[in-house]
Amino acid sequence: MEKKIKHSIGHWVGIGILVILGITAFVTLGAFVVQALWNWLLPELFGLPLITFWQALGLLVLSRLLFGGFGSGARGGRGRHRKGWRRGPLTPEEKERLQHSAHPEESED
Questions:
Q1: pTM over the 0.70 mark
Q2: CA separation (Å) from 45 to 39, 48, 61, 93?
Q3: Which of 39, 43, 49, 89 is most buried, by CB atoms within 10 Å?
């Protein structure tokens, strides 16, 4: 039993290390792509200076913060529904409340 637990812990530690290395490689590749695209296009088109790897990484992080966020769809980062909204048909009470809020002048007779 003790060997199985040690093997299980070692297995998860190995997976954790692989995940960290994979994320690092993915972010590094993204920074190199941003740097290559910037240095290829922007100096020629707009006369901007060349950037380093670290500046490209900073741009990648900044654009992620401004436009993408760091959350996943499960946490609402890219969800299509606002918090508190539900899917499915409205109940009759909800329909009536919605009609009264859309046309308040009609409900004051």
A1: no
A2: 10, 8, 23, 59
A3: 39
